[in-house]
Write a structure and sequence with these properties.
The chain is mainly alpha-helical. It has helices spanning 6-36, 45-48, 61-68, 73-104, 111-119, 126-136, 143-146, 174-195, 199-217, 238-262, 266-274, 279-290, 292-307, 311-317, 327-336, 341-372, and strands spanning 165-170, 231-235.
């Protein structure tokens, strides 16, 4: 049996308090929240805030209500809004951050000043950003006063109050969409496996993706969540919130991309030019592929921020604007205003699963790559 030396005991003693606190205040509370979501705590208003409430175990009834209940259409719209927000937030941050990094990589005059200016919004909290942008996007002032300068009617754009919804789809098509998304993820797994030389895993992933897509597109997904059509889409009131979020976090992606660009040896670029590559090909064939790990890391970090966004929406539109509602905000309203603690816990668990679906595969692949090296 291997003896434990003094350094290992010292390390264990130093880490033990943090591990205990982490186990109690993170994983212990997660477990408690998951259990609460399986109860009826809060369904009876007289029991919600009682000193010794009568709480009954009801299984997954709260989750069933959230996804198929008549009274929980707001949660389903919030879920769709969060996904749309995530897509546009990621696209805006990555595109603007990459463009800023490419410009600064050319060492323009005043580079340090511009780098500081672009990074400054990141130092603000979402509450401060939301307050500033709420002033700027108010219907009777701010940006709307400048609209005539760009040929738009003054005060006509409803940045945070619009009720116009676009790109709508029926909630009953969620199982079909989910099956196609899983198939797309399996294709990505297959491509990654082929690049790593794991051909067997790649073949299995491709076969599973093909079967799942074929099953979904030929009518295999017949689950009907609701007995009636329920359209959900992207509300234009989110445009202002997306602008504010991208303004704050684009500097972060710029810093990541700029570090990646500065880390690419100049010899690689010169070798590509010597081989006859144009300037555009140098970027598309050499630089951008080398920035792929940075893009993935930025997507993971920004993705989990956007899925659990709360404070920016609260500061810009308030908690009662259903047009700009997100799941985290609805969880707060349900649990701490309506005292429906079990349903609020269920919303929290759904958010946890969504964030874990983004982070866990990335961490697993990172640990596997580190183990190989």
């Amino acid at each position: 049996m291997r003896r434990v030396n003094r350094d290992q005991l010292t390390a264990l003693a130093v880490l033990a308090p943090s591990l205990v606190l982490l186990a109690i205040f993170v994983y212990g509370f997660i477990a408690r929240t998951a259990y609460t979501s399986l109860t009826d705590w809060g369904r009876d208003p007289s029991q919600a805030l009682a000193a010794n409430p009568v709480i009954r175990y009801i299984g997954f009834a709260n989750y069933k209500d959230l996804f198929t209940g008549f009274l929980d259409a707001r949660f389903r719209q919030d879920l769709v809004s969060a996904l749309f927000f995530t897509v546009f937030f990621l696209a805006g941050c990555l595109l603007i951050g990459l463009l800023l990094a490419l410009m600064l990589d050319r060492n323009p005059r005043g580079e340090g000043f511009f780098r500081t200016v672009f990074l400054f919004p990141m130092s603000l909290s979402f509450i401060v950003t939301g307050t500033i942008w709420a002033w700027m996007l108010q219907p009777s002032g701010g940006v709307n006063r400048l609209s005539p300068l760009v040929g738009l009617p003054a005060g006509q754009f409803e940045w945070l109050t619009s009720r116009t919804s676009i790109w709508q789809f029926d909630w009953n098509r969620l199982p079909l969409v989910t099956a196609l998304v899983v198939a797309a993820v399996l294709v990505w797994v297959a491509v990654t496996a082929y690049r790593e030389g794991a051909r067997t895993r790649g073949h299995v992933a491709v076969a599973c993706a093909a079967l799942l897509a074929l099953w979904a597109l030929t009518g295999g997904v017949t689950v009907k969540l609701l007995p009636y059509p329920e359209p959900h889409g992207f509300n234009l009131a989110f445009v202002g919130i997306i602008l504010a979020a991208v303004w704050q976090m684009a500097g972060y992606t710029m810093a990541l991309y700029l570090a990646g660009l500065r880390g690419i040896p100049e010899e690689l670029r010169e070798a590509a030019r010597v081989d006859g590559a144009s300037e555009r090909q140098v970027y598309t064939r050499v630089i951008f592929p080398l920035l792929a790990p940075i893009t993935l890391s930025a997507m993971i970090i920004l993705g989990h921020i956007s899925l659990k966004i709360f404070d920016l929406v609260f500061a810009m539109a308030g908690p009662d604007n259903t047009q700009t509602d997100v799941p985290a905000l609805l969880m707060y309203i349900t649990a701490f205003r309506g005292n429906q603690f079990a349903k609020g816990a269920a919303i929290g668990v759904v958010l946890l699963v969504m964030v874990a679906a983004v982070i866990v595969p990335y961490l697993a692949s990172t640990f596997r790559r580190e183990a190989r090296t």
